[in-house]
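URGENT: need a sanity check before tomorrow's submission.

F., can you look over the PH domain-containing protein record below? I want to be sure the sequence and structure line up before it goes out.
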Amino acid sequence: MVHKISPSCSVFETNLKAFSFEVVVAGLVLHLQGSSFEDSLRWIATLKAAINNSPPDETDPLLSEALRLEDTFYYADFETKQPLGVVLERSKEWAIVKLANPELSQVSVGSALASVNGESVVLKAYEETIAMLTGWKPPLNLIFRRAPVKEGWLKKAGVGKKASKWKNVWVDLREGKLSWFKLGPGGTLLGAMPMIGSAVALDPETEKFLRIRYLKSSREDDRSAVDYSGEEPTVPRARGQPTKQRT
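Structure tokens as predicted:
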């Protein structure tokens, strides 16, 4: 069996076995094991390089749709020397906001750092971007790309013996986190997961289901599947938006 490497693929370490790792391809997760720790590291590094350098699939409807989305940018200005109130995490070569203190800044979780003092960092290596922030002096002018926002009704697959049963849930995507609720907006929170470290793909057999594969920080394997309802929901303003912003 042959699986095509594309930009939508991902690779992670796992604790299923010693020296094991998994590769997420379209609609499928491959569990693999190296002969040693060093062997696994070399495989993971090579696979990540192959994913980063792979051309997009022209027939991939998810990538085509993603490229049509308009990015939303906003400013975060620091006129005095103070804690930035954000924790950045590496995602490929991007600096993504993992944590944010709303009392110190209006930066939102899931945003990607796009510019430092007027210099674009979108194509810079992660280490170069962090070096530009090390020992910074005011004024510091940052531009972030806001994480996509979307909400609406989906059908979510059950877990374990109930995997064949699908239930309607209200799904909310914002600030780099996917949450699902019972009975609609404001209902009981049923679950949530950060999007960093996850992948999404069309089911290769039906091309109807979006399967979101998620790897917990403990390296345990947990997967959820949702069926897109096809309705366009009304998207409210994200909480904690900075006063300065542009699109």
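My own read: DSSP finds three helices and 17 strands in the chain. The first helix runs from residue 37 to 53. If you see anything odd, call me.
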